[in-house]
Design brief:
Distance between the termini: 53 Å
Helix content: 40-55%
Largest sheet: 3 strands, antiparallel
Structural class: mainly alpha
Strand order of the largest sheet: 2-1-3
Order of helices and strands: HHHHHEEE
Number of strands: 3
Length: 154
């Protein structure tokens, strides 16, 4: 019984020491995230146009900045974003699905990376999707027929 308790104690100490180290986000990390958010804003504004033709090149370059930096969490987010960037010849419907996945990753980044107060989360219950944009006015990038459908999430 005594051996069991000692083994359990050693295992508990080992488990505590294996916990993932939390690395803080520095000013350079915040700037990288801001760059991705700026490019995301440009993409979403393009989707608000009558005949959207998004150019993913600059967004992709900003995401590459996340992938090549020294912060493990930013690298992971960058990899996830990269896999969801639509190809230039994607149809609009498949682009909307990928944009939705990108927005979910960006919303997570906003919640964890400090100093991203310029961007707000919006949610549209009709399409069940969220997005990040500046300002407080609803501009739904998913539903051309209902640009004002959605709400600012606090």
């Amino acid at each position: 019984m005594k051996v069991f308790r000692i083994s359990l104690l050693v295992l508990a100490i080992f488990a505590q020491s294996c916990k993932e180290e939390v690395i803080p986000f520095g000013p350079n990390h915040e700037k990288l995230v801001e760059t991705v958010f700026v490019q995301n804003q440009s993409i979403l504004e393009e989707f608000l146009k009558e005949d959207p033709k998004p150019n993913w090149k600059e967004f992709s370059e900003a995401v590459n900045g996340l992938i090549t930096n020294d912060h493990p969490k930013l690298k992971t987010w960058g990899d996830q974003l990269k896999t969801n960037i639509p190809s230039q010849n994607s149809d609009l419907e498949s682009s909307y699905e990928k944009i939705s996945k990108i927005q979910e990753i960006l919303i997570q980044m906003k919640s964890e990376v400090p100093n991203q107060l310029k961007y707000n989360r919006f949610y549209c219950p009709m399409v069940d999707k969220s997005w990040l944009m500046t300002g407080k006015e609803v501009k739904n990038p998913y539903a051309p027929e209902m640009r004002d459908c959605g709400e600012l999430m606090l």
